[in-house]
Amino acid sequence: MRALDAVARQIVALSNGLAVVLVLGIFGVMTAQVVARYVFNSAFFWADDAAVWGMAWLVMLACAGLCYEWKHIHVPALVVALPRPAREWAIMLSRALSLLFLLVLAWYGFQVVS
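and the corresponding structure tokens:
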């Protein structure tokens, strides 16, 4: 289990690093777009699309780290109200359902792309 956790931490670190690079890239593209449009009176036709796609990828990359570190928004009122054994089962069930949702989302995304 420790080996799996180490691999998961490496994946999260990689996705966080890629997210930082992506934020800097989006910032650079949008800055270049503003300068080109207002200084040179010309625009890059691809800049808006690149920024939109970059933000979509940014959300997906950031979600990996947030879900792993359990830092996404959740309201644990029901889980906290449960007795200890039921609380553990509720947490495992919520994680299993989250994983199932992500797998279905990945499958659907693969179907759309292919």
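(Above: one complete record from the training split.) The chain has a mean pLDDT of 84.
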